[in-house]
Specification:
The structure is a single chain. This protein is mainly α. The protein has 3 domains: about 1-135, no CATH class; about 145-310, no CATH class; about 320-355, no CATH class. Helices cover about 40% and strands about 5% of the residues. It has helices spanning about 1-5, 25-35, 70, 90-100, 130-135, 145-150, 155-165, 175-180, 195-205, 205-215, 230, 240-265, 275-285, 300-310; strands at about 35-40, 80-85, 85, 115-120, 335, 350-355. The strands form 3 sheets. Strands 1-4 form a two-stranded antiparallel sheet. β2 (about 80-85) and β3 form a beta hairpin. It starts with a helix and ends with a strand. This is Reverse transcriptase zinc-binding domain-containing protein. InterPro entries: RVT-Znf. Pfam families: zf-RVT.
Length: about 350
């Protein structure tokens, strides 16, 4: 009934104005939802042969270029090509379907049952508002930094600051000026140039000293100015436990540089580099209780844990067991698989070595 009210007899949307409070919404939503609506083929009495998505993911009308006045004459239903034994297509229609890549014999029909219209994104074919919204909404690209800001090793307060930092919405002076508020600004940490997020966290003399201290604590190369992603990925070669601590330190150093800036500007008190380092170490020590990963049993990682004043989460020690390998008997082949195979692929595949 709703379809007949807003469509012509030929199945096209009406072109004239209809006084209705719902028509603008229907006119907007119909082309968005149409690709997600399908049919379970049965007797096909209600399925339009040309305009409904019954054989492919798009209507057959979109595959054929015909003038609009000729489409008004095309009122065929799919049921017109069904007899009690199944499909009954004329030769020319069968050839046209084959040319469009449709194998009609692979589509089953049940002439004694009614059709069932389904919502294709749902596994059961049911239409729900939530499912429709998730299927049709416009999605933005996933931010690369989400996996760093919502780690279990970060306290919610530090994680919230990391989210603000990565979204570049900290109210630095240059950002406030870009919003149309004129002001004269200068970095109150070094007093050499204007304040910006890049200068405050990368170029400022105090920032360079703190990043040099952080990288030397983890025995890694000095931080460059290529961006936060390169800094956050510097400890991927270490254990998961120390990698979590490094990410915590990166955000903690940034947070306390921002707090030092605010204290100088608002409270007129200055935090020295030693004060910031002590606060960062205290925050890293508190967050070190959150990760569940272990660390490698190496001297370098033990030295890093000692420098950070955190607990050592040692992994299980390697147990070496004695085994004996006997040569295969005559007409026998030995199969070495899993960990005993040469260059084992691990979870990505299986490798077998044959030994005679």
């Amino acid at each position: 009934m709703m379809f007949a009210k807003f469509h012509t007899k030929s199945g096209d949307k009406i072109k004239y104005h209809k006084r209705s409070s719902v028509w603008p919404g229907i006119k907007f939503a119909e082309p968005i939802n149409e690709p997600f609506i399908g049919w379970i083929i049965r007797n096909c009495k209600k399925i339009d042969f040309w305009r409904d998505t019954w054989a492919t993911s798009i209507p057959l009308r979109e595959c054929i270029d015909l003038p609009n006045h000729l489409w008004k004459l095309c009122k065929t239903k799919v049921s017109d090509f069904i007899n009690p034994d199944g499909w009954n297509f004329p030769t020319d229609i069968s050839l046209a379907l084959m040319a469009m890549g449709i194998n009609i014999s692979s589509i089953t029909c049940s002439p004694n049952l009614d059709n069932l219209q389904i919502w294709q994104p749902d596994i059961h074919g049911n239409f729900f508002i939530k499912n429709a919204f998730e299927s049709t909404r416009t999605r933005l690209g996933t931010a690369w930094w989400w996996k760093y800001t919502w780690l279990q090793c970060l306290h919610p307060g530090l994680s919230g600051f990391a989210w603000i930092l990565m979204n570049k919405i900290l109210p630095t002076d240059d950002l406030i000026q870009r919003k149309g508020i004129p002001l004269v600004f200068i970095c109150n940490q070094c007093g050499l140039t204007g304040e910006s997020a890049h200068h405050l966290f990368s170029e400022c003399n105090k920032a360079k000293v703190l990043w040099s201290w952080a990288t030397s604590t983890f025995n890694i190369a000095a931080a460059d100015e290529n961006g936060l992603k390169q800094i956050l990925d510097k400890c991927t070669t270490l254990s998961l436990y120390l990698n979590d601590l490094w990410i915590t330190m990166v955000f903690s150093v940034s947070r306390w540089m921002w707090n030092a800036r605010n204290k100088t500007r608002i409270d007129e008190t200055k935090l020295t580099i030693r004060d910031i380092q002590n606060r960062v170490l205290r925050e890293v020590e508190n967050n070190a209780k959150l990760p569940k990963h272990g660390m490698y049993n190496t001297v370098s990682e033990l030295q890093i844990a000692k420098a950070l004043f955190v607990d050592c989460k040692l992994g299980k020690a390697l147990v070496i067991k004695r085994c004996m390998w006997l040569l295969p008997n005559e007409n026998e082949i030995k199969l070495c698989y899993d960990s005993s195979a040469l260059r084992n692929l691990g979870p990505s595949g299986i490798r077998i070595v044959y030994r005679d």
